[in-house]
Write a structure and sequence with these properties.
homodimer, alpha/beta, Peroxisomal Thiolase, Chain A, domain 1
Chain lengths: 387, 387
């Protein structure tokens, strides 16, 4: 398989875009990415797009045809993938396999979701289709509830506190202050989080990622093409993808996401790196507890130790392993299909040194994207040339 | 890229399965395919699944996690793709690229749709999400209407008759009589078709494929693995994928599916074959007019000549190029996501000589799967070793 680089990135601001539809958002992000790569529409060989449910959110499936049509990528092969909240990470991986295989030389990989065109009741219902509908969702176990059960067990087993959960949200809002594409530019305190309304005890409103509209896109190229077109390629050094039982209740250990562990192992092995070599990470913080679990499952903290690890500042910018410098799902926003691609964009900005006040100087970065309560996980590791 | 073979096939009967849900159907087809390949669950490295809209039909997205879970493919990477009615063909292509790339050695590729759990009004609405919702579906242009406009123009421009359209349905019902997995086992006549109710003038009920439940699966393997495991591998000699404007009204020529023409060109070029070398084809006959257009766009008949070509028996078993020996979408049934995979199964049965009374003795076969009104097309060419 060939080496693959990211040579361009582009995204919309995440947030509520009442004046734009799903296609507008995707075209904005895609156009920015190809402009950033210094290429033209006609140079794009193939498109990979991740979206969770165009059908349920906007009555629009078949984006594989619609997006190249509206982007001006005339007649190219175009693939829509879905893995619930990991749809964007999956699009990245499938684009990577395509270019690595030699099938094509330049791919645009995008993710998009338009969530605000339906009522918030319907959003929760649409999101619940990422769980086992007949065995979880139909009984009222929506995602806040499923993650709340994980949080409660983590607190029970490891003495994790609501304050420690809150620290995740506080850090991610702090990071988002410096990200112009983030949904929220509002510093919050631990006390703000603790005082916010319970959504599913012990998770509160400010433990939860928001409902968002947005799109993100990157341009992938084979090694030969990347070297011709780009002075600052970011290499995909490892790609991992694994699944687990879709239902939370079917797992032996509710506090380990097997899919994350296995996807991370694949990515670390391929990249010939360990967690100790990773200098920046974007992880899937759909709820604050999810960031704790991710930090443990990726190896940055021992199982059960993440609450203290975060509270001590190890995951802040300037800490041991800065996590979610972009603001994460919590503060950057979480337009489902776009999230996994936006994580890769933050990795690229960090490795290029283009993240402004968020810059960490990292030479290696990891992106971790989860579908459902852990039924799918994608882990990608990115590197740059030494400068 | 490596050579890839199909080493196992399995499907459910297509039809109304009131007693089974989407996962039951997928597990039945997947289990049959791995049994046919003589492998076990643990041998499967990766899963590719095509489904159009688990969300709209059954409130269930995230099948990429759910299917390996229920199939016993523990923790493997698993990819759900969607391209409307071409979702199955797209799953086949992405599985092919994966195995060809060297990423994995054995893939299960499946397609599934459960359409009868919602009312028929909602089925038409769900299917309409494969068109441009804001510019076609919202104005009432559902698929029967879009294909009816193509049929009317073909009749106007080329003197094609309603009898010639009817001949497609008659042939496909005749072929399905010998396919135990087909939804309909009922011979119909041209007069039956002409007397059936108009759905969208000039298309009648018996010009239209039915609403179906069903699943289909195949096992792909790399050349080395296939040769170890299988005496009768069927090789994927060519794979083509192209897109076109999602809206019918945006096309310069309403009677040429550019996506089909371009996908076919890619597949013929890769296989180093022309249309003259193809001895059997499964084409996308969602409506009878669609089979006429396919026969022209794939090269079997000149543009405008397909009505006469079919009427003269050239596409019947024993004719010049037998088309839809399985019964096609019209009579075998059209569970959206399963269709493209089921087409590949018929190709395999024909090339193995396992199609019973439908056997054509073909050594080369082509499968053609369309999404929407032609916004996506997939063309695959299959060959076997000379015997």
């Amino acid at each position: 398989m060939r080496k693959v680089a990211i040579i361009g990135v582009g995204m919309t601001k995440f947030g509520q875009h009442w004046e734009k539809d799903m296609v507008n958002l995707a075209v904005e992000a895609g156009t920015r990415a190809i402009h950033d790569a210094g290429i033209h529409q006609k140079d794009v060989d193939v498109l990979y797009g991740g979206t969770m449910s165009g059908g349920l959110f906007t009555n629009q499936e078949h984006l594989g045809s619609m997006l190249p049509d509206y982007l001006g990528f005339k007649n190219i092969p175009s693939v829509r993938v879905e893995a619930a909240c990991a749809s964007g990470g999956l699009a990245l991986r499938q684009g990577y396999i395509d270019i690595a295989s030699g099938a094509h030389d330049i791919a645009v990989v995008g993710g998009v979701e338009k969530m605000t065109d339906v009522g918030s009741h319907s959003v929760t219902k649409a999101l619940a289709t990422a769980a086992d509908y007949e065995r979880e969702a139909a009984f009222g176990a929506t995602f806040p509830g499923l993650y709340a059960m994980m949080a409660r067990l983590h607190m029970h087993k490891f003495k994790t506190t609501e304050e420690q959960l809150a620290e995740v949200a506080v850090k991610n809002h702090r990071n988002a202050m410096h990200n112009p594409y983030a949904q929220f530019h509002k510093q919050i305190s631990v006390s703000d989080v603790l005082k916010s309304q319970y959504i599913a005890d012990p998770l509160k409103l400010l433990d939860s990622s928001p409902i968002s509209d947005g799109a993100a896109a990157i341009v992938l190229a084979s090694e030969e093409t990347a070297k011709k077109l780009c002075d600052t390629p970011v290499w995909i050094a490892g790609s991992g993808h694994a699944t687990d039982t879709i239902s939370l209740h079917d797992r032996e250990d509710l506090l380990t996401l097997n899919a994350t562990v296995k996807a991370a192992k694949q990515a670390y092995t391929q990249a010939k790196l360990s967690y100790k070599d990773i200098q920046h990470a974007e992880v899937h913080d759909c709820f604050t507890i999810a960031e704790l679990l991710a930090i443990e499952d990726l190896g940055f903290a021992a199982k059960g130790a993440s609450g203290k690890f975060i509270q001590e500042g190890n995951t802040s910018i300037g800490g041991k392993i800065p996590v979610n410098t972009s603001g994460g799902l919590k503060a950057k926003g979480h337009p489902i299909g776009a999230t996994g691609v936006a994580q890769a964009i933050e990795a690229v900005l960090q490795l290029r040194g283009d993240a402004g006040k968020r810059n960490t100087g990292a030479e290696t970065s990891l992106a971790h994207n989860v579908g459902g309560s852990g039924g799918t996980a994608l882990v990608h590791i990115f590197t740059r040339e030494k400068r």
